[in-house]
Amino acid sequence: MSLGCGLTSACSSADTVEPAPAVAARGEESTEGEWTEGGQVATEVDGGPQDQAIEEDAEAAAPATEGEEAEGPGEIAFDGTLTTRYIGRTSGGYHDNDLYTMLGATVGDPEEDPYSGYVLGRLSQDLDGDQGEEDSPFFSLEDTYDHSLNGRLYEAYVDFHDAGLDLLRAGRQALYETPAYVRFDGAALETAQAGDDDHAFGAYGGRTVHEYQSSPEGDAVYGGYASNSLWKGGRTRLDYMHLEDEQQLGNEQNELWAAQVQQAFGREVHLKSGYSWLEGAPREFDARATWVPDETGWLVQGSYYELLQTEGSLAEELDPFFDTLQEFFPFSLSRVLLSKTFEEGYVLEGGADVRRVDDSEDEGEFNRDYERYHLTGTVEDFAVEALALSLTGDYWTSDGSDTNSWGVDLTREMSDELRASIGSFYQLYKNDFLLDEEREDVRTVYVSVRYRPEKHLTWGLGLEHEDSDIGDFNTLTARSTWHF
User: Fold this and answer.
1) Does residue 79 sit within a domain?
2) How far apart are the first and last CA of the chain?
């Protein structure tokens, strides 16, 4: 599962300043979209400008699927993205100014060349000239290093395309479809789909890579999976994953099994469910349904997630937050979303989120009962052409108290190159897992501008003011993205 950033559980500071591929995180369900059989993608929408920022970072960091054509014989295709972001934050008498540069590049053409490579790395610079104060609200793991300039190599691998396999990869890589997200130095392979049932097999193994610690020789991952389509519109997948993690308090070795079933009914209906076992005991269950009736403007989604066992100390890939949050107790999260787009340019969207901790005595920070019901209306051409107005009404109930809130967003497409937004949204709880902090009753006001003067270059500027129970926070973000 992945940390969902949105109105119900906002991004942590690490999500804001660390534009790396998503880490596995307990406590929230994935908000990634699902592909239907007809190729249409349906996405759960949670709202808020953080979601847009993370989506843009993910797009910038993703490996290119096609290299650009070489200009002449012997030339190598080269395709990539360079993103630079300045983030300045203030709260009370504290401040923090950082600069981040991320490079993602593909060398070679995966469609034409016998092999191709990909690299994803990042440099960060603390512009304040020190490594932060421990009592600062912005003090993080980044501030524990001896130098203000730090670099990270997230991925660096080579794909071999003439091996008779659908995938043969060696180097530092990340796996997203496995039961737990993992980054490792090693090798992975997957066969092409074959036979009447389109079966395929995959395997991987190597030394795991952890963000804020060196990976000793004892850190390892290996596993495999099998998938097939035994009936029309359906696909199943069975995974096995073994993780080893040397920690200060001992070595963790975990065995994880997972089963997944997907079913598509034409272009309109897509169903997906999964179940996993950790050390032979049930761990997680999730199910999701998406209905997109053709040419009606309707989108209906429902999802359910349940953590089935209390999680203690595990390999970091299974629970990276144990050191700060300690045990995490079973809970369930149910979501429903309905959206209707009208021909006149109006959009009406409503939904509900219901979160329940199995045992009320286990409720605490980062793991609470709540209910949220919301309704959003959008007008595409409000007052003037290309000005979109969205209004959101929320009803929250938690800990025996009820809260009504509102949200608003005004977005204007000035031209094909220029877009500007201003608005506000509310969060009953905002979680920062890495800083071990939960903020309540959070109102955020934001303004942002995106300018794309040419196809390969995008500039962005954003300002947020956050008012919460523990104080005010201001964040200024400036971004440039160059596609080459």
Assistant:
1) yes
2) 33
